[in-house]
Fold each of these.
Amino acid sequence: MPDQPALIARNLERSYGEGSSTARVLRDVSIELYPGRVVLLMGPSGSGKSTLLAVLSGLLRPDRGEVTILGRSLWTIRESARERFRLEHFGFIFQGFNLFPSLTAAEQLEMVVRWGEGASPREARRRVGAMLDQLGLGARGHIRADQLSGGEKQRVAVGRALLKNPRFCFADEPTGSLDWGHGEQVIRLLHAAARDQGAVLFVVGHDPRLIPYADRVVHMVDGRLSDEPASLEPTL
Ligand SMILES: Nc1ncnc2c1ncn2[C@@H]1O[C@H](COP(=O)(O)OP(=O)(O)OP(=O)(O)O)[C@@H](O)[C@H]1O
Ligand SMILES: [Mg+2]
């Protein structure tokens, strides 16, 4: 197991709003993420989990603090360089899935391999078919995203993030709208991406059944990270 963190975040602060309506969402958050390991971030709704994910992954600028990824300071490089870095190294699974409604499940995935990597149509079809099978969507590839169920969309989003074998995968509630059978399938895939490809997996989730698949569980408590849940946070 490599001992060097691939991502180091130091003293992150982030607020929304101004003046008396300012909400301080992140207060002095520091964390290190290691290749090959799954970190699960838990915490009540509105506690800042998606905000932290966005700051760590180059989508939302912190007010203060630093994120260093593979030795580069994510928030001091230019926007274009940050964008390239994200495209090259990051896979995302967002809370809202962000699929293209008029493309089929298979087309959403083929785009990643064909345009992202320049694979041939045949190679793209092969890899996409294998991924859809792994996600239990083998028979749904030809269905348009706007006709898929919430859980099917979610699994397509997971496939899209993992297909390019990213070095970092940021997943916001990747099992949120899935029954546990499919949820377990998804967390197993994410876990395998960490184990087999040495990816950094940063997963936001609230289901305690995810815990056994995590190498470390951290909790958002009053804008800070804690190894223990907030005392009032329900355990289920
Ligand atoms: N763009 C924004 N402008 C103003 N406030 C925001 C914005 N985004 C988030 N917030 C506020 O910041 C707080 C943290 O939001 P965030 O989305 O990070 O929470 P979360 O832990 O991901 O919640 P959930 O579990 O419901 O997804 C919330 O109070 C939210 O209302
Ligand atoms: Mg959220």
Note: The chain has a mean pLDDT of 92.
Amino acid sequence: MQVTGTRQREAWRRAEFPPVEKVTGGVWSVPVPIVGNPLRYVLTYLIEHDAGFVMIDPGWNHPDSWQALTAGMGECEIPLAAVTAVLVTHVHPDHHGQSGKVRELSGAWVGMHPAEDAFLELRGSTLMLRDNVAAYLRWCGAPPSHLDELAASRQHIAQAEPMVRADRLVEHGETIDVPGLRLRTVWTPGHTPGHLCFHDETHDVLLTGDHILPRITPNVSSYDMESNPLKDYLASLDALRGIQPREVLPAHEYRFTDLDSRLDDLAGHHRERLAEASEILGGAAPGGLTAWQVATGVTWSRPWSELASFQRQAAIGEVLSHLRYLQSQELAAESDRDGVGLWTPAGGPTFGG
Ligand SMILES: [Zn+2]
């Protein structure tokens, strides 16, 4: 992998805000701050077509973010009214938060994958979600105090404005309906169920959202008792092989090239995590371990005791996605004891060992 967004990386190293940049003729990148988040900013992209501009990932909904987006567009001499389509790679609020405001002021339509729109629909019914989360956390083996801590830390999110639903649903392999631009979708589930990458074939650049980032691995978490997002994620890495775009345009950090080597790194990271989870299960007592117990044994960037409740929640989700993947490969087994999931090795060889 080679970094092409060198000014962006310089800014990252100095903990400064990166510049607005013309990526290539007809493509601009505007950094939009994410208030209070270590990722610091989303890169909003604007791509010109024959009748205006497509905007991808308008950013976090906050007055400072709005100011940065509109000032950045001003620098590019792109009026808001010229935006005809807003596309989102996925509906996390740091990407999709401002879509409603852009739509309202420009008249643009908002497009996303159907699975993201379905998630927004579900998000509306918070009471149901809380019951589900409680049952899920019990099943993961989390202590009851964790749910209360988590609820307290999420209070501010519950009060946030609801995000807008899709005007148009965009499926895998579609060419976006804008004149004079070949913008094709690649469905890349894993980070979220409906994550999309956009291959701008006209400029030969690939917009990868959170699916592929140059420095960090995106969170791939299982937040229910059934899904296998890591299996999806690994398949979604393969879905990008062979495209070999001239440049990769991620939603955070900085631009880079040589996509395939980055795909190898990301797959390798998950293989290591799978081996570690497999080893922890292998060393467990015959009764098995809960996902929470496995998570406390995994190496994180900080000791488990120092992680905040939302970080522990992300950690459980990550561990569970790896356990679920091991199970799908018949390398781990799960059994239910009074609503608590217990994981054991499935008797086969230890993963990677
Ligand atoms: Zn995200």
Note: The chain is about 40% helix and 20% strand.
Amino acid sequence: MSSAFRFVEVDQPRPQQPWPSIIVPRQAIEHEIERLASIALPATGRRASAISHPSNTHEVPCFAPGIDVTLHVLKPGERTPPMARSASAVDMCIGGSGVASIGRHSFAVERFDVWNTPSMEPVSFRNDGKDLFVRLSYSNAPLLEKLEVHVVDTAPRTVSAHEGGDSAAPAGPRARDKAEVIDLGSEGAKLMGYEYLVDIDIVESRPLLWPWAEVEKHLAKVYHRDLSYTGRHLYLLYNPATERRMGTSHCFFATIAKYPPNKIDQPHRHTSAAINYYFFGHGKSAVMGERMEWEAGDLHFSAPGWAVHNHGSREQGFCALTIQDHPLQIAMESLIWQETLKSPIVKLGSQRGFDTNIGELVRAA
Ligand SMILES: [Fe+2]
């Protein structure tokens, strides 16, 4: 007889304990970059530090419960050995320049460029410039670690950029075409054969680059939008592989905001957690009733999931990269959203979402 398990009464929902909003100031980030650059290159070939939130009690560092933020530094001439893992990532270069090699793809990156790294692709970075190559990397590894399925291969078979083969290409007849599909009732419930579990329709997942030089040109439009706009002054960096989940990676969206001076957003909340990296200007926030100010170079755990918050600019306006685990929450049917505190609480992706006044502004222009 096993005595290892126990029964736990669960008649009451557990009160949630959102982690407090915190700011990692620019000076602390710069100091850590200098420290990483000053140490001997670790045997792993990686100069990297993850930023752990003070409320994190798990041994794996994370900045939001399901999101890690890692500072990676490469000195000129250095390159990281290839690694593949089951986590996916979104990165922003915040200093210098380098080359990202992800699976069969390779591209040069420079300051404020953003790209996604699909899971299980051999990834390496090299610094072919004269300055430190610094990037912030956001991944879903903490969630996978909690699930004990963060699969990491430190010696993956590398694939050359010229190697053929498209993983999305159909390859002959599929066993599942012979498997049963049986309708049950008239509401859509079915019985389906095992083959449907092990041969899922493919949506190719590729690394995509959003170069700052291109993105910046388009931001003027959101920056100049009228202050009465009820949406956010930003663009989503959309990866079509995420389809209706509106992501940059399969777990996260990244947005780039350019706020005009003195624009204050409405207080709102969503179950997705948000992390902001400010790279121009300054602003202020109120999160769970706490007021805080921030400036370019700060990293901000800006919205614990389901915490009421709002952000606003001051006299300079600001630019920010925001990462949220929005596509993950949509996939889990848990993206609950309240656009203003007077709005209904809506399950985005299953229920009609919210309107902004963009139509009025476009007509008035
Ligand atoms: Fe928000």
Note: The mean pLDDT is 95.
